[in-house]
Amino acid sequence: MKIVVAIKQVPVRDSQLRVESDGRWIQEGDLNFEINEPDAYALEEALQLKEKHGGEVVAICAGPSRAQQTIREALAKGADRALHIEADDLNTLDTLGVAKLLAGALKEEKPDLILTGLQSDDLGYGQTGVVLAELMGIAHATIIMQVEADGGSIRVKRELEDGWFQHITMPLPAVLTIQSGINKLRYATLMGIKKAKSKEIKAIDVASLGGSPAAVASIDKIYIPQRTKQAQIFEGDVKVAAAKLVEKLKFEVRVI
Amino acid sequence: MSILVVMENRGSAWNRMSWETLAAGQQIGAELGVPVMAAVVGKGIGPLAAELATKKLDKVYAVEHDLLAEYTADGFTSAVEQLVKASGATHVFFPHTYQVRDFAPKLATRFGQMLVSDVIAIRLEGGKPTFVRLLFQGKLNGDVRVSGDGPYFASMQAGAFRADGLESGTAPVEAFTPTLDAAAIRQKPDAPFRESARAVDLTAAEIIVSVGRGIKEKENIPIVAALAEALGAELAASRPICDNGWLPMERQVGSSGQTVSPKVYMAVGISGAIQHLVGMKGAKTIVAINKDANAPIFEVADYGIVGDLFEVVPALIEEVKKAKAS
């Protein structure tokens, strides 16, 4: 089975974000980046499927040159090779644009299965996989917690809201968006890291895919949300703060 | 210009977020002075359409077909695509549910558009809506403007609009039968199920102490469990904690877990991503303990301590014990 995993590089969690002076994006200069967490689970699922059924795992990532590091990490964990769409203007593209680039780059690959995380931790539109499936004319299912492949079809467990689930059977090829927690993430081994150095990363120029598609949804402005509710913050010495909070819980909220 | 709200139901029950989205549609429609329509999609939906017709709307579509009895991405995309074309709607609103996330992006792609998902507010500028949505797990907001020929698609986050502001009226119901081909529906769904009976009913708890990523390691969970015990509270968690298997899934609060509204909800080391907030923002009093003063959890909190939970929690336990003893 040939499996493609679409991964994205995003700022590490807990990054202190500052808005760029033009108000349209964040200052990226002093940030560190990592694989988008749900994409890490998608990669792990692909690796486990390959271990079970054989085949190949190809990672694909659109992003600037710094994304190479995230791609290398995917190779170190066990992806066989990678495609890197060299895009410096990712934050001005919309999901449709990114999905068009991915679909263009995957035209020759003809994978049986495409996996990606259910959403990105930065933009969080949560739809790249679904749009990609539509552009490629193949079936999809979202928020997947289990994948069983069986010849030409797959059976997946889809998460619904409020603790409900549902099994769905679909023909291959298909796109699945993977939910965090579907599996247990592996670490790259030293051997894996060594091997990754000789694995192929094919650079794909955006121009060769017809250039950056014009956005139909663009972010005009980003900003720190205005607080609608003013939390009463207890500051200073930890003991004093804790005592003040407990006093509130006892005398105003009356739960102690 | 006209607005179409696509409602969501499972069987004969509405998804309550649909009403909030309908309120958004009415509100924007009234401000712009444009027609507002609503649709219910499925099989045997007559009673739901009749209920919808008691709201102030220009038209209600009852989109009915045997192949819509169960939700499938292919079936619903095709049905709603035909409806959008027939209705002539320029703006199509959905509740931001898991089902909508599954098919609305596909639908928008068919129109060369994209779904502006997870919208928390709509601002009108020059007669055109600008959609406000969360970015970076709720740390920042973004104003999104749509362009192209439309129609435009947006999904509304839970709680962004108030359903109690819905206006009543009398709307005509129009039956709409899409042309669907069973062979073109690739997803074959089984019946939805629940994993097991819930051993832990967080919804009944008066006090909940909930733990998030800030706890760092499984070995540290007892620190927060001790606080829960001191307060006589149920212990809960945000999704990543349950994903890691540090606490069972049944203790998860959020869109994929339980929705709770206790007297006090104490969030310890939880940053407050929207998926978590929708599960707990109905709590009467929210207390947040987090080292990051800019964490979104402080947006909804009534009381907060900005600090290292490994120092704050033991101090709290001590103070709670003192308060209980006195």
What's the arrangement of secondary structure elements?
The complex is a heterodimer of chains A (256) and B (326).
Chain A: E1 2-7, E2 9-11, E3 33-35, H1 37-53, E4 56-63, H2 67-77, E5 81-86, H3 95-106, E6 113-117, H4 128-136, E7 139-150, E8 153-159, E9 164-171, E10 174-178, H5 190-196, E11 201-205, E12 217-223, E13 232-234, H6 238-251
Parallel strand pairs in A: 1-4, 1-6, 4-5, 5-11, 6-10, 7-10
Antiparallel strand pairs in A: 2-3, 7-8, 8-9
Helix pairs in contact in A: 2-5, 3-4
Chain B: E1 3-6, E2 9-10, E3 13-14, H1 17-32, E4 36-42, H2 46-52, E5 59-64, H3 73-87, E6 91-95, H4 98-110, E7 115-125, E8 128-135, E9 140-146, E10 152-156, E11 173-176, E12 188-189, E13 193-194, E14 207-211, H5 221-231, E15 234-237, H6 239-243, E16 264-268, H7 274-280, E17 285-290, H8 297-300, E18 303-306, H9 309-325
Parallel strand pairs in B: 1-4, 1-6, 4-5, 5-11, 6-10, 7-10, 14-15, 14-16, 16-17, 17-18
Antiparallel strand pairs in B: 2-3, 7-8, 8-9
Offer a quick outline of the entry.
The complex is a heterodimer of chains A (256) and B (326). Chain A is of the alpha/beta class and 256 residues long. Chain A has helices spanning 37-53, 67-77, 95-106, 128-136, 190-196, 238-251; strands at 2-7, 9-11, 33-35, 56-63, 81-86, 113-117, 139-150, 153-159, 164-171, 174-178, 201-205, 217-223, 232-234.
Uncertain stretches of chain B: none
Count of β-strands of chain A: 13
Which pair of protein chains has the largest interface, and what are the residue counts? A-B, 80 and 95 residues
Biggest beta-sheet profile of chain A: 9 strands, mixed
| Percent range of helical residues of chain A | 25-40%
Radius of gyration of chain A: 21 Å
Q: Can you tell me the overall shape of chain B?
A: elongated
List keywords for this structure.
heterodimer, A: 256 residues, alpha/beta, nine-stranded mixed sheet, two-stranded antiparallel ribbon, 13 strands, globular, B: 326 residues, five-stranded parallel sheet, 18 strands, 27% strand, elongated
